[in-house]
Amino acid sequence: MPLQHKHAVFGPRFARHLGRLTRLYWSSPDAPKGAGLLLLTIALEMGTVYGNVQLSYAQAGIWDAFQNKSTGDFSKWIATFLALTLGFLFVATYRIYVRQSLEIRWRHWLTDHYLARWIGSQAYCQMELHRKVADNPDQRIAEDVRDYVASALGLSLSLLSAVVTLVSFAGMLWSLSGHWRFDLGRGHFQVPGLMMWVAIVYALVATLLAHRVGRSLIPIQYDRQRFEADFRYSLVRFRENVEAVALSNGEAGERRGAMKRFDHVVSNFWRLIRAQRNLTLFTTGIGQTNSILPYVIAAPAFFAGNLSLGSVVQTNIAYGQVSGALAWFVNAYQEIANWRASVERLVTFDEEIEAARAAIAPAEGVQVDTASDGELRLDHVRLTRPDGRVLIEDANAVIHRGDTVALVGPTGAGKRTLLRAIAGIWRFGKGRIAVPHQALFLPERPYLPIGTLREAVAYPADKDAFSDEAVRDALGQMGLGALVDRLDDESAHWQQQLSGGEQQRLALARVLLQKPEWLFLDEATSGLDEAAEKRAYDTLREKLPRTAIVSIADRPSVAQQHRRRWTLVPGPAGSVLEAA
Questions:
Q1: How far are the Cα atoms of 151, 218, 437 from residue 339, in angstroms, in the given order?
Q2: CATH class for domain 12-359?
Q3: How does pLDDT run across 504-536, given as a tens digit for each residue?
Q4: What does the domain layout of the chain look like in residue ranges?
Q5: Cα–Cα distances in Å, from 337 out to 73, 214, 222, 230, 274?
Q6: CATH topology assigned to domain 367-579
Q7: pTM of the predicted structure, to 2 decimals
Q8: Which helix (H) or strand (E) holds 520?
Q9: β-strand 182-184 against 187-189: which pairing, if any?
Q10: CB–CB of 83/137 below 8 Å?
């Protein structure tokens, strides 16, 4: 499948994206606490480097004691090494602990930020209904935020450690290899800081070749996250609709669809492991070769008696630290590729949220305002499809408090679109809609959150917002009295446990609890028979006499429950609203 990610290189665009994403947390109210943890993490990171330096001296002393056969020096250096190891263990352990503490704070804040932007402004609805650019927002918030934060801290701190390590060991390596004398025939020669130059040449060659070999990992990682999320979402969607699939005998089709998405995962995975194979062959091969270089280069000087065994060991340690620091980019390349993809996905997600929020900005399209006089008003409302085709032309109407209005018209006339416009989630068109406070909308298929029955009935309010007596009474009024003893049952998946009609009854019980002043029903009683439907409307009118009710009425039995009608009559220029 062709790649859809087109920005896989490091450059100004990536720098802007990275800066934008990083500033989100580090300019937040939580930043001072995060900065304290970051400073402590940096201090501990530098402490581990200092420990490595001191341990290298201790190891050199141990090997010199071996060479000199000095029992006293050997005991002294062993004791020193053990004491340093104990301190190093403490610092290294708490370095990880403090870093992870900062990681979870950063992730918590960033997750809350994206959830607020995605959910809080109804951007999610615009993105799902009308825009298809940002795939799998759930995966971006759950996994890309996690990967971005973990890699941002891990890579930045490892880079800092590499720089400090380079500064700490470079002088030692230069000094240790600065006076190596090599015999060449009757003469000899010396190269000041020989091993330092070897480390620099190794790092330059390794970095250039690693980028050339591994650069394809970045777009592959981007698509891997997308394909994995697509496959996982298809399975979740099947689980949420198992009954509908079973009734349709759609198991074979679902399996084909799931495997088609998984084939994308497999195809991308093969590309990934081939790229990782090439990079691993290179990095492992050059790394193993590099590890033996200090011994090969030091051997002539040692055999000539110009170096002690301890100096050779310490040179090997120093060279390993310096070459590892200089080759940081090579060793971190795979994580950088994954991090680069996470940055790109989060920033493009943020851009898509901005585009969705702009689509529902008050200055554009249909303007939805709060009614100051407590009445619902349509003023010259024209609703269109996203492509500009007119659905409803110049609608003007008023609904007063306590009115009951049936919205009728043939299929495709725009009834549901008008209700969406009143709810503020359809802004394509022009005109003004004034909507009073305390409005509640019930769709045909109500949403039941995963949790207890009490949480499902109280939604979107908190589960403790209503007393047991009120909840039990509301369920009983809507014919769900058999469920009142299961309010705190967490074992049932209520979306699957309840029939369509029972789910609609539960949603109507929410209405009795929340007592809205305005109630909009989008075929919210379609799963009830006429007798049960009539009882539901009678109960609503009895318990909420001052509540205005607006219902989409595709059945005559629903229209009969309302005093007034809004009729949408299709015409050549769009449907016309006739209010009576």
A1: 6, 9, 45
A2: mainly alpha
A3: 999 999 999 999 999 999 999 999 999 999 999
A4: 12-359, 367-579
A5: 48, 9, 9, 21, 15
A6: Rossmann fold (3.40.50)
A7: 0.63
A8: strand 518-522
A9: antiparallel
A10: no
